[in-house]
């Protein structure tokens, strides 16, 4: 996925302290993605930049694309992060500069590690299902791994945890309730898709050293007593050993968590770096056609790089 804003705001991200349990509903904003997809951008936002190493969250759909091209995101670069593609409905065709070609379907993990540099495109296949609904997320790579070799993984058999009272959890990344995803991670984190049947009233064991957020994908959920409409993100902080969950209706939500990220970062356009030089070099390399490679097979030109802001890019921690 890409940030298609031609005037991207500098995101000063990173760690600096932990918070206890909180209940903070984070506002999202509507952002166009590609030719015909509108997404709700939930991270980063005015109140919060990261949840653990999770640094970018878009939620889209459900959209009726029967007579539309659907998602069409041209080739674009990434550096210093992992991308996570997660669908509830539809299909997304992934291509990248390693030569990967993979269709990602509902509840399958498409995981791309950019490391030092990679480029990819994402599109709805020409013959695609009627609905498109899912989330696209980024995970910031810690300093010791940010220059790792790029890679792509596709996992179509993820572990599932069933709980009391109508809870089913698919572990996307990391570990939850003793089940571990096969996806590669570089910092302590978790991502899980929680499905709750109407009337569910349960408690999910969680790690008190992790901070968490919950994103309602469909239906209405109640997380730690807070009612959430679809597309709402609730930041929960740290210090919990369990998370109360209720389902007034059938619903699904994403649980994102991890140890608070203790590094200062700059996130600009599709890059996560540590210094202004990191970002300037990455942009220059993309413009020149160096380092990121070529995505073959996409019907259209790659995304042009936006201009850098006039003000200096400074790495910052979590606290404003």
TrEMBL record:
Necessary cofactors: Fe cation
Domain Pirin C-terminal: start-end pairs: 192-291
Cofactor binding note of this UniProt entry: Binds 1 Fe cation per subunit.
Classification via SUPFAM superfamilies: RmlC-like cupins (SSF51182)
InterPro entries named in the record: Pirin, Pirin_C_dom, Pirin_N_dom, RmlC-like_jellyroll, RmlC_Cupin_sf
Example of a GO MF term: metal ion binding
Domain of life per record: Bacteria
Protein keywords: Iron, Metal-binding
Record's keyword annotation contains Iron: yes
Region (Disordered): 1-26, 297-320
Domain Pirin N-terminal, chain residue ranges per copy: 45-139
Span of the signal peptide: none
Pfam families: Pirin, Pirin_C
PANTHER family recorded: PIRIN (PTHR13903:SF8), PIRIN-RELATED (PTHR13903)
Family, per entry: Belongs to the pirin family.
Protein name as catalogued: Pirin family protein
Originating organism: Streptomyces benahoarensis
Source species taxonomy: Bacteria, Bacillati, Actinomycetota, Actinomycetes, Kitasatosporales
